[in-house]
TrEMBL record:
InterPro entries, per the entry: Folylpolyglutamate_synth_CS (IPR018109), Mur-like_cat_sf (IPR036565), Mur_ligase_C (IPR004101), Mur_ligase_C_dom_sf (IPR036615), Mur_ligase_cen (IPR013221), Mur_ligase_N (IPR000713), MurE/MurF_N (IPR035911), UDP-N-AcMur-Glu-dNH2Pim_ligase (IPR005761)
Alphabetic keyword roster: ATP-binding, Cell cycle, Cell division, Cell shape, Cell wall biogenesis/degradation, Cytoplasm, Ligase, Nucleotide-binding, Peptidoglycan synthesis
EC number: 6.3.2.13
Name listed for the protein in its UniProt record: UDP-N-acetylmuramoyl-L-alanyl-D-glutamate--2, 6-diaminopimelate ligase
Record domain Mur ligase C-terminal: where: 322-447
GO biological process, one term: cell division
Source taxonomy: Bacteria, Bacillati, Bacillota, Bacilli, Bacillales
Family to which this protein belongs: Belongs to the MurCDEF family. MurE subfamily.
Pathway membership, UniProt: Cell wall biogenesis; peptidoglycan biosynthesis
Length: 481
């Protein structure tokens, strides 16, 4: 592809002598540059790509795009205001706008993105619409599943993968980090869904206003005919509805003031197009999952899928890996593994746990090093208010020294109301040994994610730890079972 064609979306004029340069690829990592590539220099959190320009040129870069005012680097240099946005626009053109003939659905919010995406994928595929999925658990393209490394991939990888998709629809979880870092720049969405906004990621966004504005920015990528589906019964949801309306885009409001659709217990009332009540009951229990189901249902109806078909599809929905995933102890206790990692998410999952009428609820959870510390005390208090026993442990250290994290856990529990076991696998083992018939042990924070560091037991994840403990239990008690 010629440079002149590739940079048109950037709105930058270049000299005639470089317009016809043939571009064979893009990269923002100098080590991945090959001959006749454009290298996009990005100022990252830990490294500045401008420092690697000469490495990129040595590897074959024939053009460099960056933000700094540079001259005489040996190849044509294009200065832009924002390299991340430029990368998204360049990638979209280079891969020939890979989503232009697909149904594009973006989902943002603090909690519920993954569950809503899986529900919506199930509904659409039940209606014969094949779906690619980009999310925090995995990517699924043309039926092939790969484990995810980020909730929202970088713009270059997104376009590369989307160009391989033969599916009719693409459903994408869009994180606030991904939006702040322009990872979806160049994409346009037919539907954008907002689940909720809660205290989270303030280590990155600094305050709730900044966090909200990042989420709001997704809706700037709606096509002119695009539709926003917004759970609007909060100040953030109502504010977002007003913003999207100001963009002259259609808004479907779920709950809130003057709603389009209303959640009523385990039903959804479509009070404009279809003044009828439809069941959104499914195997994922709890008020929060009913809300997720309502958003998926509302989007599917807008896609002209028959409400009765959507209702029926929920009866066959198998759930989401690592979201309220149940595991039974041989003695009759039940374990639940879930990704919940905010105070409100704790409230939802522990309220749902109580629906099972357990003898006791034991909660195992921890915190991630170098992440939002403001939410930790509230999370502990919510757990204490809803559980018989709270076991504090680590999620991931993320480079924080073990002793520092232990001191942090101890300081958060000055009244010694929690059991503190820093090693996550030993904390789960403690809960396993403590469990009695009809107890419910809730393990939150990781879901199906693998551990980032080694713990005492030779296991890779919370579910793996439970399987390891179960195998050990059965082996030790084989003559008594």
């Amino acid at each position: 592809m010629k440079l002149e064609t590739l940079i048109k979306p950037l709105g930058i004029n270049i000299s005639k002598e470089v317009e016809s340069i043939e571009i064979d690829g893009l990269a923002f990592n100098s080590a991945k540059v090959e001959k006749n590539f454009i290298f996009v220099a990005i100022s990252g959190t830990h490294k500045d790509g401008h420092e690697f320009i000469q490495d990129a040129i040595s590897n074959g870069a024939c053009v460099v795009v960056g933000e700094e005012n540079l001259s005489s680097i040996g190849v044509p240099y294009i200065q832009v205001f924002n390299s991340r946005k430029a990368l998204g626009l360049l990638a979209n053109v280079f891969y020939e706008n890979p989503t232009q003939h697909k149904i594009m659905i973006g989902i943002t919010g603090t909690n519920g993105k993954t569950t809503t995406s899986y529900m919506l994928k199930h509904i659409l595929e039940s209606a014969g619409i094949s779906c690619s999925l980009f999310g925090s658990i995995c990517t699924i393209i043309n039926g092939v599943e790969n484990i995810s490394t980020h909730t929202t991939l970088d713009a270059l990888t997104l376009n590369q993968l989307m160009a391989t998709s033969n599916d009719r629809a693409i459903i994408m979880e869009v994180s606030s980090h991904g939006l702040a870092q322009a990872r979806v720049e160049g994409l346009r969405f037919d539907y954008c869904i907002f689940t909720n906004l809660e205290h989270e990621h303030l280590d990155y966004h600094e305050n709730m206003e900044s966090y909200y504005l990042a989420k709001q920015s997704l809706f700037n990528y709606l096509k002119p005919s695009g539709i926003a589906v917004i759970k609007s019964d909060s100040i953030w949801g109502e504010r977002l509805c007003e913003y999207v309306s100001s963009l002259n885009r259609e808004v479907i409001k779920v709950n809130g003031t003057d709603p389009t659709h209303i959640i009523s217990n385990e039903s959804l009332v479509l009070n404009k197009r279809h003044p009828l009540r439809y069941s959104i009951n499914n195997r994922m229990k709890g008020k929060h999952n009913i809300e997720n189901a309502a958003l998926a249902f509302s989007t599917a109806v807008s896609l002209n899928i028959e409400p009765l078909d959507i209702e029926n599809s929920f009866q066959h929905f198998s759930g989401v890996p690592g979201r309220f995933e149940m595991f039974q102890h041989p003695n009759g206790a039940n374990f639940i593994v879930d990704y919940a990692h905010t105070g409100n998410a704790f409230s939802h999952i522990l309220e749902t746990a109580n629906l099972y009428n357990p003898e006791r609820i034991v909660h195992v959870f921890g915190f991630r090093g170098n992440r939002d510390v403001q939410k930790r005390s509230n999370m502990i208090q919510i757990s204490l208010n809803n559980c018989h026993t709270c076991i504090l442990t680590f999620d991931d250290l993320n480079g924080v020294p073990t002793q520092q994290m232990i001191e942090e856990l101890t300081s958060l529990d000055p009244m010694n109301k929690c059991v503190i076991i820093p090693d996550r696998t030993l904390a789960i083992q403690y809960a396993w040994d403590l469990a009695q018939y009809n107890d419910l042990i809730v393990i939150t924070g990781k879901g199906i994610e693998n551990y980032q560091q080694k713990f005492e037991l030779p296991t890779l994840s919370d579910l793996h730890t439970l399987n390891y403990l179960n195998d050990s239990f059965v082996h030790q008690n084989q003559y008594y079972l």
